[in-house]
Each structure stands twice: as C-alpha cells, then as structure tokens.
Amino acid sequence: MTTVSSSSASMPAGPAGEATASVPQTLAGFRIGVTSDRRSEDLICAFRRRGAEVMHAPALRIVALTESVTLQQDTRRVIEAAPDFAIITTAYGMRRWSEAADTYGLSTELFETLEKATILVRGPKARGAVRAAGLDDDGSAEDERTATVVEMLLTRDVRDKTVALQQHGASDDSQIHRLKAAGATVVTVLPYTWTKPDEDSDLLRMIDAVIERQLDLVTFTAAPAVEAFLSVARQYGRFEALVAALRGDVVSVAVGAVTAGPLYDAGLSPIIPSRWRLGAMIKLVCDHLEEHQTLRISTRHGPVELRGSEVRVPQVTDEAVRLPPGPLSLMRALVKAEGAVLSRDHLMQVLGQCDSEHALEMWVSRLRKSLPVTGLVSTVVKRGYRLAV
Length: 389
Hints:
It is built from 16 helices and 16 strands. It is of the alpha/beta class. Helix 4 (91-104) runs parallel beside helix 6, helix 10 (223-235) runs parallel beside helix 12 and helix 14 crosses helix 16.
C-alpha cells in the first residue's frame, strides 16, 4: 500500500508558514498531488496552509542553461542575425536568457538587437518579462499557445525575414518548420531545458497513490510534465489503472489549456481555471473540492461530513477520523446513497478494488471500527448496507 508522503517537498519557513492559523482550513482532509518543479513550493505551501496533505513528485525538472556554451553561441547568432521579428514564449525563458547574456557580457548587444525587432509574446507573463527588460511587444496570443503566435506572425510577410524564437524546454520543430516554409530564416535559443528525475521512484509512488485513491486531486502546470507523468505510467504497466482513477475518484487539474492538452488526449476531463495562473488554480482547487468532493448528510447521530479522506461527526467528537482507501470508497458510496440500501452486488460493482463478498465484509468491518460512533452503518438483512439516517 502506498503511503502519501510530503517528505520530498518541505514547507518553506517564514511568514507563509506562520500565517497558517489565520487561513481558513478549506482543504482539511484532502490529499493533493503536485507534479511541478518550478514554483512547486508556492503550490505546496498554499495547499498546506489551507489544511491539505501534499505529495510532491516532479514529473520533470527544469535546468537553466546559463552556463551552456550552446546558449552563448546561439545568443551571439541572434545578435549577428539582427532578426526582424522575435518570439518570446515564456517569462522564465526571457529572464534566464537575459541573465545568461549578462554573464557572457552580451547584455547590451542583445537588448539593442531585440529593441530593433518586432516582438511577439505567447502570453501576459512573457509580456511582463519583456517589459521588465525595458522592451515593448507588438502582440500576444490570447490562448497563450506558441502555434497561435506563429499564426499571428504568418499574417505578415516573413519571406526573406529573420525570426528569433525563444524556445521553452525543448525544440519546437513543428513551429520552426512553419516559419521556414513561409520563407523565413529562423534562429533559436533555448535558455532552459526539461530533464527527467534521476529515478522514477517518486513519480511511481504518486501514480500508485492515484490508482489506490490515496489522492483526491493532482495538479499539473506544464504539458511536458503531463506527458512525462503518463509516459512513466505506461512504462510500468499502470497507464490503464491510472486513467481509470483520473476518470473516477481522483480529479486532474491543469493550470491552462496548453497544459491540459495531453490529458484530453488521454481521454480525461481536467478542470481548468478561467485565468491560467497559479493563484487562480489554487482557488479553483479549493472551490471544486468544497463543492464537489465534500459530502454532507444528516443521520440519527447528527450531521456527518466527508471531506476527502476524513469523516467528521461533530455531535460526537471534534476529532476528524482518517479512513483508509477501501472503507473510504465504501463510506462515500453510502453517503451518496442518502440512506438508501445498497446491495452487495451493487457495492462490488461500484467499488473498484472490492471483488468478493468477503472483501466487502472486511471493508464494512474496518469502516465500522474506524468511525467515531457505532451504528452509523447498518446491515439490512439479505439486502445490503445503508447509513442510519
């Protein structure tokens, strides 16, 4: 059995941690997986401050290429090419490129080169980085896709023009080909790259936690990370079980439409904030779990609340009870039934990992022992089980 652990990502010290008591515990009882590398501490801290248990396993790691000879050579090539157009795809890439140019002693030359070019940006964050560098842009893609920026550029005459393309994480060969096919000369820079973790063990533990329903929700902030996450599941024969869990009990959250692409391709339906930003994603997680993953019912023993993996019976005790995955799935089914009797056959159908009457009886027994009050789960002779409402 996989244990949800947060040891791989410690909560940062300082004011954020000290302010925990003043933040509503809207995520208490919920278990959230974080797959990002860059800015992961921001997410982890935000979720923990609101009471969530967090598991962190970066699907990919970002490596800045500031010391790379290739980046230095490519920067010189951009300066020498004096591009007519420049495409800036990410704020992080723009910042790393500017820092690298400063390290190489090319900062002034790069600034003057980009100042003379018509700059297009992929989205608001890239625009912010361009303006922070003292430059102006001439347009931004509403959907924040590189393909859309290229489409914007192709509405202009790029034949015999030079385009500088700041790439993000890996070479975008399809967009380079489109520009070249239109007659443009393309020079590229790659200020950072994506690399796989040294081992798959942390990511495998998260995949198993999703499959075993030990997580309520998993967050994704980059499409390459989604692809790596799904690829590792395929490699180890867990893809079908992972997708089944993400279609059922475990929610997938993408920071934006680009990130969501590989999830859609896998047949999943991630939730996406209306504004493609981390802050908006955090709010969406809180709102969604409160609205859709928090179950409440009135019973003979008073109100019962099921939040993530925790059950609360406030008229009996102030303490929340953490349920293991099997009994948790059973409790969720009983609460959703609102006191109706659920037959053994029905329960074995809807409870994915419960494949026999004996296993079901064991889950019922474990659930009853875990609950803070006896008699909440009733047996209806020859029919099944129900909550005592």
